[in-house]
Every structure is written in C-alpha cells, then in structure tokens.
Design goal:
With 744 residues, the protein is of the alpha+beta class. Helices cover 51% and strands 12% of the residues.
Amino acid sequence: MAGPAVIAGSVLIVLHAVAFSGRVSTQNADLLSLWLPTHCFLGTSLRAGHIPAWNPYAMGGVPFAADPQSGWMNLPAMLLYSVLPCGAALNAFVVLQPILAGLGVYWFCRGEGASRVAATFGGVALGVGLAGSSVVLALPFSAAFAWTALTLAAASRLLRARTWAARLAWLGLTALAWGQLAAAHPSTGFVLGSLAIVAYLVARIVSDREHRGTAALLAALLLLAVPLVNLAWLLPRLEYLPRTNIALGYDRMEALARAYSHGLPAVSPLPGRAVRPTEPLRHVASPGEYLGAVALALSFAGWRTKHRAVVIGFAVFGVLCYVLSLQAVAEWGAAHFRHVRLLGVWLREPARFALGIPIAVAVLGAFGVEGWRAARSWRDRAALVAPAVAVWLCLPLAFGADFGNLGLFAAGVLAAAVLLVAVSFRPWFVWALPVLLASELVANGLATQAHQLSDTPANQRALRPLYQLADLDVRTGDVLRPGAIALALQRTNGDARFVSIDPGGWDPRGLHVHQAARSWPLLAMNQSMILGVPSAQGYDATQERRYWTFLRKVDPRVIKYNAADLEHPASLALNALDVGWIVAPAADPPSGAARPVVREGSWALYRIAAPPLASLNEGATMGQPVSSARLGPQRLRMVTGPTTGGLLVIRDVFDPNWHATVDGHPAPVVPVDGLVQGVRLGPGRHTVVLAYDDPSIGEGLLASLLVLLGLFGTSLVLWLRGRSRRVGQSAPHANGDPDRDEAP
C-alpha cells in the first residue's frame, strides 16, 4: 500500500485547503456556476428518491437527465452528492479526481508488469501534477484524466486475462469505465481519453505475437460492449440532442448568433484558442502545470524495455495531442473541415488537446524508471536521457523569457541527476525516485496557491504560467448560504420566474462569469437550481433549440453559444417565460413599473406584473386566468372555469416528452409561438394535468442492467465450472487414488 498511499497523501497535501477547509476558487468559471448547482440538483433529487428528468428551475424549464453534462450516470457525482451536503460533495469531488487519476496509472502500470516503484512514479506524475494545476478545478477534464487512467488499468487486465471467465468480467468493467469517461466530459475529454485507450490497445495487439488474435478479438468485443454497457447514459442523450443547439454544430451556432445579432462579431469563432509550438514546454515552469524534472528526464527512457510497444503507443499519443493543439494545424483544419460537426469538438478549442501530454508523460516516465534500472552502461544511460535533455532542458532555456519561473525545475534537474547516478551504482536507491517526484510536485502545488492571481497586475496576467492554480479563497458554504434576495424569492413559492439583469456588467460569455462575492446576490450563477426557485435564464452548453433561438432573437446582442442571459428586460421574453421578478442593480431599476422589494448590497429584487403561468385563449380573447398548481418538478395541474373551448397556453418551454390529460383522457401537447406549450380544450370546465416522462431513461437503465448481468453472470458461470473442474481433477490426488502408483 506504500505506492497508493504516497499518491493519495501527496494529493491531499497539495489540496489541503479544499479537502479540510472547504475552500474552492472562482478561477474556473464553471466550478461554482455549473457543476455545483447541477450536481447539487441531481444529488438532492436522488436523495429524495426521484430521478430528475426535468429541471424546472433554469431556462424556463429544460430536460435534465438527458443533458450530457447533468451528471446523470456519472457515478462519483451521483454518489457524493446523494450522501453528502452539496458543499462537502463539491470539495470531495475536486480532491477525488487526481487521486483516482494517480491510482489508475499505478494500477495500469502494475497490470503491464511494471514494478511498484515505477507504478508509483507514474501515479505521482499524473495525480499530484493534476492536483497542483488549475486543471483540477476544470472538473470535466480532471474527471476525464481519472477515468482515462482507470479505463487503461481495466483494459490492461482484460488483455492479460487467460480465462474467458476473467475476460468477460474485465470486459464489463472496462466498458463501464470507458462510459464513465463519456459521462465525465462527452466532448474533448472523451476524445482525448479514447485516443489514449486506442493507442494502448493497438500497441498491445501489434506487440503480442503469441496472443494477437485473442487480443484483437477482445478489443473488438470491447468496442461493441462500450455502447451497450452504457445505454443508461447514452439513450437519453441520443433522444434529446437532435432538438438542442448542440445538434447545429459549433460553426452553425456561431453563424446563427451573428445573424440574430445583426452581424455583430462572433464570440467563439472557429478555430478557437490553440497553442504556439513552444507552449507545451511550459511544463517545466512553476507555478503551473509543472510535471517534475525527474519525470521529464525519464520520459524518453523506456523504449529499450520489454514495454517498448506500449511506450511507442503513448509516445505517438502524446505527439498527436501536441500536433492537434497547434495554431497552424487548427487553422488548416478550420479551412478544410469547419463544417464537419464531429470535428467541431477539436476546432472549438484545439489548445485543450495539449492536455493529453501530461497523461503521456506520466506513463512514459513510469516505464522510464524501468528503462533506467535495466541500463547496463553509461553509454546506454546517456542515450536514454539525451532526448529529454534536448526537449525539456535546452529548449526551455533557449526560450526562457516565455516560461516564467524555472527555479524549481533547476533544483529538480540537479536532484534528479544526483539520484539517477546513485541508482546506477546502488539500484535499491530507485525507491527515492517517486519520493523526489512527489516532493517536486507538492512544492509546485503549494507554491502555485501562494502566488495569487488577484495579486498579479492585470497587464501581466497573460504572462502567468500555464494552468496556474490560485485564489483558493472561497468557502463553498458561503456560496451556498442564501442572502436576503434569495430568501425573498424562496418565500414566493415559485409564483413566477425571475431573471438577472445587469446591462452595465454584461459579458458576452454570460453573467455567470461575475463570481466575486459582491455579485452573488445577482443570482446569475445557476443558484436557482440550489434554491429551488424557477428562473428564465441559465448557463449550459446544451439548451432546447427553441429556447436558444428565442432568447437570441428577442434580445439581439453578442452572446456565447452556452450562455442564456438577457442583457435587456425585453417585454416579449418576460411575458412568454412568466417572469414576475427581476434582480438588477439597486441604482438602475429595470423599468419604471418595477417595484423594489428587498435590497442586498448593490442589488435589489424588483416585482413586475407577470402573466399567469397558464391562460386560456377563447377565440380572439387571450388571457382568461386558469387556476394552476405545480404538483412537483415534473407535474402540473390546471383547472379552468366554464369555457367555450380554446387553446390552453402553459408558459413552460415546449418539449415532446410532456404529456397531458384533459379530464383524465390523453390529449396532445402542442408548441405555441414556437416556444411554450399548449393544450386544446373543448367547451365546459376542465382539469388538465401535465406530466413529464422521458421513457429513454428507464429503457437505458434496463438495457445497461441486462447487458451487465449477461456479462457478469456468464463470467460467474464459467468461473464456477472451471473451479468445479479443477476440484474434480485434484480430488483423486487429495483422497489417494488406488489405481495411481505411489511415488517412491
């Protein structure tokens, strides 16, 4: 247990403020405004025994479990947020990912036959390196690192299993882990992780001459099993995505955004942010995404070991990630493939593909330890480290002005040189290699937190080290504590929706990026999902296409594809979405008719006249009020007075999974004005019940359960048969066979 203990303990030292003091950072805009409220809503619902298929608290109502980023079937998110308070769950989730990433690399290397020291070295490189960088706050990427490593570990056991009982069991576990990679980050993170897994599978198939056919068969079965095992995650998303903005593709979304804003510039043109050829060399700089001098020194040292094929596979993976992240390559791709929707995952932000380099370095460094131990001459050792010296030492020194502080790297180079020489004379010194690496990465992680971004002059922040982790100065509990405006909205019992308006602080990325404590009362960080109060706005990459289009047409302005905020209180939008409350600057009321109700800091909650949630259109007359009551997050009942018949309009965003009954009889739900819902009524009094039901959720759960039961059940049967056969074969020997000659 020493290796796993070093990995987990080092991560906890680096993230002690997160793990033990409940602190997080506003450095990553999504942590508090997307993942905290989204996973909190998920966990709160599951704790109450309810699968949240519909989210009534954001964007006028929107499908939830089918959203790729909702956390549904993300097993760590579901577990942590179901058993822990939301704040503690967020902190635990942040800390858990680098620990899982490090342990995953450890188990993978052990599965490939590496020593415990080498496996610990690789686990420390990825886990502690991740913990000391700001990537740990980008939860989709940190979780993608974790599940990439865990999937590799399971795949290694799958290919090395020698009985079909073991193979089927590992096939199910590997497919399940690969599905969790999709649940962690269904776009770039999934692509990066899948590239690493495929690189490993190909390397093993090519190198295993004795069992090549079996390895190829197992890889094919794995590719077939991955979608089948994960139908619980996959089916709801496949059913929902065609009617979302994401189905348009990133290029089409930007074109439409420009058209709706009357030609204003796009927020996210393709290609997005890419990197210069020298930028990945910033891995030698601290504070930042520092990988450790000793890990970099051994990153080219594993090619002469028995693991050569796997080393080559991960080297190819690392080079591919580097090439795909380059500005010139991204521009070439945008010129030729910008209209290919699947490639939008790459072109939206090619720089993200450089995040595959730390995964490659961690694995290569682990096998580099084995290569250094196996070297028999100084000439061999010089050949092992020469490429690392050229790439990680000479080039950073040549471009030193771009790479920040190289002090820790210089100290690490000196310590690594001394220790590697010591290992050459006394091989048992090899245990100190992961200790040295852990010391380097812990020092980097603690240094990066001491160097606060808030203390850096604005004109120098662009020069800060790559992925610097800083500003862990926000307590999660403080974010979750409702203020005066939030409490006032909770007391309304959801009689109308609210919106947040701040024209003076408008940001095309969305209002959620204003995350200083003074902006919390604006409630623009999806707090509605935590408070349980309905909002007409939100922040999510996946939105109902009707809503996404409507918001941009009624309030034309420059806005990013995943933002859903109003810059101006357009009356058409307020009426259509049943808005009766506005949070806005106290010094700048949204309109003359808005009545201030409560003030908190520089913000105020205003009451405006709101249309009823449901109203009846009789002929040319619109607006006969209807008694309505929400019976839960996915159920609504309305009672009409005497009517000659007409269209009952419900100001919830239309979705085909809403079903209606009129006086107990099924009735169709139709879109009204291209946005909200309607039910046609005949003469008389009526009771109308609307309920949301997404059958793909249950179908996916059942399908995944049956596939897993089939795999693990067959594995168990085969194991029992094999065990019975072995017992039967050994029984005569144990009991003494009278027909067998006794040994002399």
